[in-house]
Design a protein that fits this description.
With about 350 residues, the protein is an alpha+beta fold. The chain is built from nine helices and 14 strands. It folds into two domains: about 10-165, 3-Layer(aba) Sandwich (Aminopeptidase); about 175-335, Gcn5-related N-acetyltransferase (GNAT) (Aminopeptidase). The protein has helices spanning about 30-45, 55-60, 115-135, 155-165, 205-215, 225-230, 260-265, 290-300, 315-325; strands spanning about 10, 20-25, 70-75, 80-90, 95-105, 145-150, 170-180, 195, 245, 250-255, 270-275, 280, 305-315, 330-340. It is globular, with a radius of gyration of 22 Å. The two termini are about 35 Å apart. Residues about 1-5 have low confidence and may be disordered.
C-alpha cells in the first residue's frame, strides 16, 4: 500500500530502515495483513496456534478500551507489512490499572531496533491514556498503573527485549496437555449434584457463574456489559461441549470446553481444550471440578479427538495443578505476564 503523507505517523525512536513507514489502522481490509503477521511470527516462535481471518475479525470487532485510530500502529517497509503493535487498557478488581500491549515483528526484521521503537511507542501512548483517565477522574491517583504483556516462553527475542527495558515476570501459566484420551479415570459427580447439557436459556447463567468463580483468581478483570456477547460469539465456542454441574437450579461449576477445528487442521492434530474450569465457592472441595473435567475428556474422545489441553496458574500449584496432573495432563510449555510500572509522574 502506498501511504499518503496524511496517513503516515511518526515514531521518533524508529530505526533508520530504508522505506520504513508507520500508519494507524485503516479498516477490516487490514485483517488479512494481521493474519499474515501473526502466522509468520507464530511459526518463528514455535507457537502452536493458527490465527484465522474469522478469529481476527471477531477479536477486532469486540475490542474494548481500544481506539484503533490511535492505539494501533502498523510498520511497513517499501509497502510490505513487517510488524504491528496494539495497546488497550484493563482494570483489575481491587488491583492495578493495566496498560496492555501486543506486538509482532516478523523474524527477518528483528534485532534492527523496530521492536524497541514499537515498545516505546506503546508505553508513551498508554501513559497518555492513563494521564487522561486520571484528569477525568475515572482513574484514581492512588491506583497503581503498570504496563503488561503476555509472552510465551518460546518467544525468546520478545523476552530479551522486555527484560532489557526493565520488565519482570509478574505471574506465569503452564500449558498442560494430555497426550491421549485412553484410560480416562472414573470421577462420579458429587452427591446431590448432576451434570446437565447446556441449553440456550442457560448460557448466560453458566457464563455469569464462571465469572463469579474466577473473581478469586489472580488478575481478575470484571467483564463489561459486552462481555457475554463477546464470549458467546467466539468462532470456536460450542456450548454442546460444555460440562455444567447443577445443584437444583443453581450452577455449581463448569468446564467451558471447546475444539478449535481451524487450529487442528493447520497443525494436523485432534485436540480439545478443557478450559474455563470453575467451581463456585459453596461447592468447592467436593470433587466437582474433577468430575466435570473427566466428562470433558470423555466427550472429546466421543467426538474423535486424540488429546486435550488446558492452562493453569503456576501459583495454583497444590490444587488445580495436582488435579490436572492426576487425570493425565503434563506440562509442555507456558507463558508469563511481564509487567513494569508506568513512568514516574504519569
Amino acid at each position: 500500500m502506498n501511504l499518503t503523507q496524511q496517513e503516515k505517523m511518526a515514531i521518533p525512536t524508529a530505526p533508520e530502515i530504508p522505506g520504513l513507514v508507520f500508519r494507524h489502522f485503516n479498516d477490516e481490509s487490514d485483517y488479512p495483513i494481521l493474519v499474515a503477521l501473526l502466522s509468520g511470527c507464530n511459526a518463528a516462535d514455535g507457537l502452536e496456534r493458527a490465527d484465522t481471518l474469522e478469529g481476527v475479525a471477531h477479536n477486532y470487532s469486540h475490542l474494548e478500551h481500544c481506539d484503533l485510530s490511535q492505539d494501533f500502529v502498523l510498520a511497513e517497509v517499501a509497502g510490505t507489512p513487517v510488524a504491528y503493535q496494539r495497546v488497550w487498557w484493563e482494570q483489575e478488581k481491587d488491583g492495578p490499572w493495566l496498560g496492555m500491549m501486543v506486538a509482532k515483528v516478523l523474524p527477518e526484521w528483528r534485532r534492527k531496533g523496530l521492536g524497541s521503537a514499537l515498545l516505546r511507542w506503546g508505553e508513551d501512548r498508554l501513559s497518555l491514556v492513563a494521564a487522561r483517565l486520571r484528569s477525568e477522574g475515572s482513574l484514581l491517583l492512588e491506583t497503581p498503573c503498570r504496563y503488561s504483556l503476555e509472552v510465551y516462553h518460546t518467544e525468546k527475542a520478545r523476552i530479551a527485549l522486555l527484560e532489557k527495558n526493565g520488565y519482570a515476570v509478574a505471574r506465569s501459566e503452564h500449558v498442560m496437555v494430555r497426550p491421549d484420551l485412553e484410560a480416562i479415570p472414573d470421577a462420579p459427580m458429587p452427591p446431590g449434584l448432576e451434570a446437565r447439557p447446556a441449553v440456550p436459556e442457560h448460557y448466560r447463567r453458566v457464563w455469569e457463574a464462571a465469572v463469579e468463580a474466577f473473581q478469586d483468581h489472580w488478575g481478575f478483570i470484571p467483564p463489561t456489559e459486552n462481555g457475554f456477547e463477546n464470549f458467546i460469539s467466539e468462532p470456536f465456542n460450542d456450548p454442546s461441549l460444555w460440562q455444567v454441574g447443577w445443584d437444583g437450579d443453581q450452577v455449581a461449576g463448569s468446564v467451558l470446553a471447546f475444539i478449535n477445528n481451524d487450529e487442528n487442521q493447520a497443525l494436523n492434530r485432534l485436540r480439545g481444550y478443557s478450559e474455563g474450569i470453575s467451581v463456585r465457592r459453596p461447592w468447592r472441595r467436593r470433587g466437582l471440578a474433577r468430575a466435570l473435567l473427566v466428562r470433558s475428556l470423555q466427550e472429546f474422545k466421543r467426538r474423535g479427538m486424540q488429546e486435550a489441553a488446558l492452562s493453569v496458574d503456576t501459583q495454583n500449584w497444590h490444587s488445580a495443578y495436582k488435579l490436572y496432573e492426576s487425570v493425565g495432563f503434563r506440562i509442555v510449555t507456558g507463558y508469563s505476564y511481564f509487567q513494569k510500572s508506568l513512568q514516574p509522574g504519569v
